[in-house]
UniProtKB/TrEMBL annotation:
Identification of the protein by name: Putative ATPase
UniProt-listed InterPro entries: BTAD (IPR005158), OmpR/PhoB-type_DNA-bd (IPR001867), P-loop_NTPase (IPR027417), Sig_transdc_resp-reg_C-effctor (IPR016032), TPR-like_helical_dom_sf (IPR011990), TPR_rpt (IPR019734), WH-like_DNA-bd_sf (IPR036388)
Family according to the record: Belongs to the AfsR/DnrI/RedD regulatory family.
Pfam families (UniProt xref): BTAD, Trans_reg_C
Length: 1006
């Protein structure tokens, strides 16, 4: 973890991700610990600095709380980072690596002039503004800010002097002038400024600047300029030749940078580092990815390390030759011309020189380049070579640096900058993101597209990218011809391929996304050919390993596939390939291999969709039906209900009179999925589902879909399912039915039976290796443990559930289990942890578009807010979901929300509002049928009546609620007694203890 103070206080993970430190006091604590640079800061000083005007009631506890918050923020970003904040008498210290340490290391580095200047420039580039900018007014940082400002100015002076020695006086004039105006009494700066003025022929200005300095020193400090400055002034008057600029010689033919290099900081650093430790470095990547630009910038940064120069040799114009000897001669001549020696003397000329050669665009000459460069490297120990090529040289000692397309943010930045420079107006962020994604983050493609924004706008440009080769056929007149249009760039790469490689590339275009080697072979691209295309940067390797084409390459190869007349045949091969995969995967989704096969199908999502669309377009009903039947359970597990419905409809829409059994199964799946989505179609869907093939386990699916509806009717369906599965010996079906029955039993208050069913379900699912089933069953067990007051067991089960759900990528389930942990934290009155769990759960659910999980999480935030007395915040949380819950078929959460809103009204003293809310809540609880929900409604009504002069009725309602809870073995836990205790104390104050007890007892009598 890295910490920054050369600007606003900042924290980054080792991967460069910013870390958010909440609350100003916590950030101030961090700042003071950073100021100490690893030394212990006494607690007393920290308290005094953090609360300079008004001390908290318990200062030590307040400081400890801020330390805990800081540790929690660091740990959330990087596991183990909380240990960086060390408690050590008499206070705390921070084991931190800051940008100050990096700055000082660079400043103190030694070496050759240009190398030192580069390191000083890198050191000054670390500065983001005033040190500790967000706390610079605080007394505890002032000395550090002054010290660091002085170090920065000293570095600026040293860099200015080095640049003068390197002959960069003209470039320095403006910078030094600004610095002298801001720091008029810094003598080193003034001396550098005078030399720069003198060397650019501005002698009188240099003498005038010296005069102004002398007058100011005398007026303000009563001093004369230093002896060095006086001697410099005399040298200017004499026009001393020793003050002239040092002689320079041509040491490079690198072109000047016209535009800024964007999004390549890490890659550039990697290339520079590679050049420092390797004599042959090759930047490899697809055409248009920016290899040449990075190579030139890397060469520029290391130029100071090569006393005899850095030379760029452009090879794109060299033609391939049938004669290897002729090609080598042409290559040697090109290098000799760039360096400025005779080609026959090239090896001798380089043998005693310190030189960097940059050989740009070698992909069409890789064999020749490898041979000649190998020979030169052996004969010239001071030679280093930087190569750009679409494929490696495969030479001894070669270090590869792979140049990949730009990341999303950098691609968008590049596109916007280039479009604006070309006079375009960029307003629609989503369209820019779509363009960058469709163009794969290729800098050349982005720059070509940016030139069209002025005439088309980004939205229209994005819409036309399917015809990108025609649309991007102009835009750049500079640079080599292969970079002037997108088609020319891809043509160049295509023409370098052998015929078998071209066949393989065009056939790979049938895959909608990345593919495995097996899938590539299925369409006629062997592993060997795929490997050769990877070497040529036309196929990318992604995790798996899997193989994909950049979209521009894919579209181009698709054109070539159609030109070859192979499109229909290769599409048919792809349909067969992915249909077989789906059928192979389906049974694996119910057991030990569930996680692996979910991952495999996730990776193939785009390909599966594409082949389904292709089968529908071809009117191939059998293939389409086979595919959707095999994928139905996968779609269910992933919660992609809408996708499943559309797929079933598409497949059934082209189904012929073929396999009726297959068609019947798909109709059954369609009915079951429809039940999950739309309860209004329950009767028809249920009949259709029950008529379907047994493989669907229709009775269980019907019960699962019904579980939010009328409980009694659903229990009947589940019991029928359980009997069916026990008769058939279907262990998975038995476990699934028991899981649903356990959930229903808990809702009915049959807690012992629910616990037995859930435990048996979990045991079977665990034996089968079905993690989805385990997640479901352990959720019921956790909720039952919570009801019984075994919070440790409940939390353990929820943590297991979170782990299993995350392993499977079941993010909706993970959200629910995080909320479960939040509920346990509430019961343990750990409000901070409860808020953290519920906030994480809510964010995760919102990202997935999972409304039930989002609602469950936000209700948890409302519960926590009310228990802390934050009634307005709690009401906002509950009100947000009330209407949404009322529109659900069974309204399962309505009783809780109405009860909470009723308690809020009662705590505000509004008896009539509380009575109305709890009355509505009682009706909702009766509809749901959960005894605990009824008890909650009676407790709420008791609170309302305690404010409206019906104290006797309120006492009886409390008794009725207690009886209901005890009848199902779920008495109110101590952590949840605050409302009942508040209402009880109010009633005892009104009735007296004896009368209250008598009425409470009457209420407990059925």
């Amino acid at each position: 973890m890295r910490f920054g103070v050369l600007g606003p206080v900042a924290v980054w993970t080792d991967d460069g991700e910013p870390v958010r430190i909440p609350e100003r006091k916590v950030r101030a604590l961090l700042a003071e610990l950073l100021v100490s640079e690893g030394r212990v800061v006494p607690a007393a000083r920290l308290i005094a600095d953090l609360w300079p005007e008004r001390m908290p009631r318990d200062p030590a506890n307040a400081l400890q709380l801020r330390v805990s918050q800081l540790r929690r923020a660091l740990e959330a970003a990087e596991p183990g980072a909380r240990d960086l904040v060390v408690s050590q008498p008499p206070g705390y210290r921070l084991d931190a690596v800051t940008d100050v340490a990096e700055f000082r290391s660079l400043v103190e580095a030694s070496g050759e002039l240009r190398s030192r200047a580069r390191r000083l420039s890198e050191a000054l580039a670390l500065w983001r503004g005033t040190p500790y900018a967000d706390f610079s007014a605080e007394p505890f940082v002032r000395a550090a800010v002054d010290r660091l400002d002085e170090e920065r100015l000293t570095a600026v002076e040293s860099l200015s002097e080095l640049r003068l020695e390197l002959g960069e006086h003209a470039e320095l004039i403006g910078e030094l002038g600004d610095l002298v105006r801001r720091h008029p009494l810094r003598l080193r700066l003034r001396a550098a400024y005078l030399k720069a003025l003198y060397r650019t022929g501005r002698h009188s200005e240099a003498l005038d600047s010296y005069r102004r300095l002398r007058e100011r020193l005398k007026e303000e400090l009563g001093l004369e300029p230093s002896a060095e400055l006086m001697e410099l002034q005399q040298g200017i008057l004499r026009q001393d030749p020793r003050l002239d600029a040092p002689p320079t010689r041509r040491r490079s033919n690198l072109p000047a940078a016209v535009t800024e290099l964007i999004g390549r900081e890490q890659l550039l650093a990697e290339a520079v580092s590679a050049l420092k430790t390797n004599r042959l470095v090759t930047l490899t990547g697809p055409g248009g990815v920016g290899k040449s630009r990075i190579a030139i910038e890397a060469a520029r940064q290391v130029a100071g390390d090569f006393a005899d120069g850095v030379w760029l040799v452009e090879l794109a114009a060299l033609e391939r030759s049938d004669s290897n000897a002729a090609a080598v001669i042409g290559l040697a001549e090109a290098i000799a011309a760039a360096v400025g020696v005779r080609d026959r003397q090239l090896a001798d000329a380089l043998s005693n020189q310190s030189v960097l050669l940059v050989l740009d665009n070698c992909e069409h000459l890789v064999g020749c380049v490898a041979g000649l460069i190998g020979d030169l490297l052996r004969k010239a120990p001071g030679l280093r070579v930087l190569v750009t090529s679409q494929e490696p040289l495969a030479a001894n000692g070669e270090r590869l640096v792979v140049v990949r397309p730009l990341a999303v943010e950098a691609a968008a930045e590049l596109f916007v900058l280039r479009a604006s420079a070309a006079g375009g107006v960029v307003e629609e962020d989503s369209a820019v993101a779509a363009i960058c994604d469709r163009l794969d983050g290729l800098p050349l493609a982005l720059e070509l597209a940016a030139t069209r924004v002025r005439s088309l706008g980004v939205t229209e440009l994005s819409a036309r990218l399917d015809d990108r080769f025609k649309m991007l056929e102009s835009g750049r007149r500079d640079g080599p011809r292969r970079h002037q249009t997108l088609r020319a760039m891809v043509d160049w790469s295509w023409e370098l391929l052998s015929e078998p490689e071209q066949v393989a590339l065009r056939r790979l275009s049938v895959h909608a996304d990345s593919c495995t080697l097996e899938a590539a072979a299925a369409v006629g691209a062997s592993a060997e050919l795929v490997g050769r295309l990877v070497d040529r940067s036309l196929v990318s390797v992604v995790d798996g390993p899997r193989y994909r084409l950049l979209e521009s390459i894919k579209l181009y190869a698709g054109e070539r596939l159609r030109e070859a007349g192979e499109a229909a045949e290769i599409q048919r091969r792809a349909i067969d390939c992915y249909g077989c995969l789906a059928v192979q995967a389906e049974p694996k989704l119910y057991g030990h291999e569930q996680r692996d096969w979910l991952g495999r199908l996730d990776a193939e999502t785009a390909n599966l969709r594409a082949v389904l669309d292709a089968a529908v377009a071809l009117g191939d009903g059998e293939s389409a039906l086979r595919l959707v039947d095999a994928l139905a359970w996968y779609w269910f597990l992933r919660g992609r209900i809408g996708e499943a419905e559309r797929a079933f409809a598409a497949a059934l829409g082209i189904a012929g009179a073929g396999d009726e059994g297959l068609k019947q199964r798909v109709v059954g799946w369609q009915a079951g999925i429809r039940l999950l989505r739309d309860d209004s179609a329950r009767g028809t869907a249920a009949r259709t589902l029950l008529a379907a093939d047994r493989r669907i386990r229709a009775h269980w699916f019907l019960g699962f879909a019904h579980r939010g509806g009328a409980v009694a009717a659903t229990v009947e369906v589940v019991d029928a399912a359980l009997a069916e599965y026990e008769s058939a010996g279907d262990q998975w079906g038995i476990a699934a039915a028991l899981s649903v029955r356990g959930t229903l039993g808990r809702a009915r208050g049959e807690l012992a039976e629910a616990r037995r069913d859930a435990a048996r379900s979990e045991e079977i699912f665990r034996r089968l290796g079905d993690r989805w089933g385990q997640v479901k069953a352990t959720n019921s067990l956790a909720e039952l443990a919570e009801i019984s007051g075994d919070y440790e067991r409940a939390a353990e089960l929820h943590r297991d559930g979170v782990r299993m759900a995350e392993e499977l990528g079941l993010w909706g389930e993970a959200s629910l289990r995080l909320s479960g942990l939040g509920r346990i934290a509430l019961l343990q009155r750990d409000f901070a942890a409860a808020e953290e769990f519920h906030t994480r759960a809510m964010k995760l659910a919102a990202e997935q578009g999972n409304k039930p999980a989002e609602e469950f999480a936000e209700l948890g935030l409302g519960l926590g807010a009310r228990r802390q007395g934050k009634l307005d915040i709690a009401e906002r949380h509950f009100r947000r979901w009330l209407d949404w819950l009322r529109h659900l078929d069974s309204q399962p959460g309505v009783p809780l929300v109405l009860a909470e809103l009723g308690f809020i009204a009662e705590q505000r003293g509004d008896g009539s509002a509380a009575l109305a809310l709890h009355t509505e809540g009682l009706a909702a609880a009766e509809a749901v049928g959960d005894p605990r929900a009824l008890a909650l409604a009676y407790e709420g009504l008791a609170g309302a009546h305690s404010l409206t002069d019906d104290a006797l009725g309120a006492a009886r309602l409390l008794g009725r609620a207690a009886h209901l809870r005890e009848s199902v073995g779920a008495p109110l836990p101590p952590a949840e007694r605050a409302d009942v205790d508040r209402i009880t104390n109010r009633l005892i104050g009104t009735l007296g203890n004896t009368t209250f007890t008598a009425e409470h007892t009457r209420g407990r009598t059925p």
